[in-house]
Amino acid sequence: MNRDIFVKLLQQRQFKAVRSILDVMNEVDIALLLSELEDKELALAFRLIPKDKAAEVFANMDSSMQTYLVEIFTEKELKELLDDLYMDDTVDMLEELPANLVGRILDAVSASDRVKINELLNYPDDSAGSIMTTEYVSLRKDMTVAQSMAHIKRTGIHKETIYTCYVTEQRKLIGTVSAKELMTEDDDMRIEELMEKEIISVHTHTDQEEVARLFRKYDLIAIPVLDEEDLMVGIVTFDDAMDVMVEEATEDITKMAAINPSEKTYFETSVLTHAKNRIPWLLILMFTSIITGTIITRYEDAFAAIPLLVSFIPMLMDTGGNCGSQSSTLIIRGIALSQIRFRDIFRVIFKEFRVSLIVGAVLAVSNGIRIMIQYQDFNLALVIALSLIGTVVISKMVGCILPLLASKVHLDPAIMASPLITTLVDIFSILIYFNVATHLFNL
User: Fold this and answer.
1) Among 225, 307, 325, 398, whose CB has the most other CB atoms within 10 angstroms?
2) Cross-strand partners of 165
């Protein structure tokens, strides 16, 4: 939908046309369209959204839009919205809202919902409990398929998903059954005969990244969440797992770029916050690079004897950094997907060593030929070739070992990414280069 046409219709107060547009649009697309409006237009447009879509549109808005709307809503409007919002979406909103608005929302919900919201808010950040919803379909094992379908018809409208139903006995999870099975089996068949007893579940304190990994591994639609007594308290749905995957991938990418992660979007984050997130690692890396400068200073005599040696330093350092980044990126991704574990460290080292020999040999021969053609100096070509092989081997070893060591000591492997590895590899490449040069040229 074109924003200008939509705004024009609002300004001309052609509300019937606006409603007809919103009625056929997807909820996510509506939220995206509304994000381009001014506050006054946003408030007017939101009130024109069909009631059955309003809560879903609200759940897909960013926190600044939600905050503005909550501020201007009447008590009646706020209560209607909260009645239609799923519990996990309500909790997500509360975590982003200012304290004064949180109190207003808690006053607008029922006492029982307030208890559930407070329980969800008390779970640790990044845990299964913090992203789960308490709205799921619960069945008894002695129910028939017909009774179960009738139960879903009565209560399913208030549940986040009905595709997987959970069979419980005094809140103890004993099985699962899919909506497809209920719709295709005989009406008089009992749930006990139909349910799947092999259940994949998590606990409230399970890390959300592990929850997302289970979704990816088993292709789940939802996963049940149990408390410390193994009683069922909620489910995590696929849409929430997808949000976690995006969040974790974003966090890894920012860490790999030596930036402290932020939960806000690029434009929502202030200039000062952006700077604060970037400065610490830049300072660490800058002072670490002093070591490289100190090493170069020690070999001033070699520069004086053969000034041409200096011109090859950037090429060697860049090659080493790039090789280390290639290895670290593959290993970090492998760790994230659980394809590589610390116990595989020697297999990884052996594989990367063989890769480095091939890569180093190709780069060494290529540069050796270039130097022979350009400078017609065999010793110089040999120095660069040997230095390249040594640099590539060391950089790939550093690039594969550091992320695995980080995972072993329960640090995020993404910390050991390009900037840090590049800085370390710079030190090794300079040491290798000048040691090879001083020995072959007898400097």
Assistant:
1) 225
2) 177
Answering whether pTM is above 0.85, one says no
Per-residue confidence (pLDDT) for residue 258, from 0 to 100 = 66
- Identity of the amino acid at 283: L
Domain assignment present for residue 241? The answer is no
Is 259 within the bounds of a domain?
no
Shared-domain flag, residues 72 and 127: yes
Residue type, 14: Q
423 and 374 part of one domain: yes
pLDDT tens per residue, range 27-45:
999 999 998 888 888 989 9
**Number of structural domains the chain divides into:** 3
pLDDT at 174 over 70: yes
Burial class (CB in 10 A: 0-12, 13-18, 19+), 71: middle
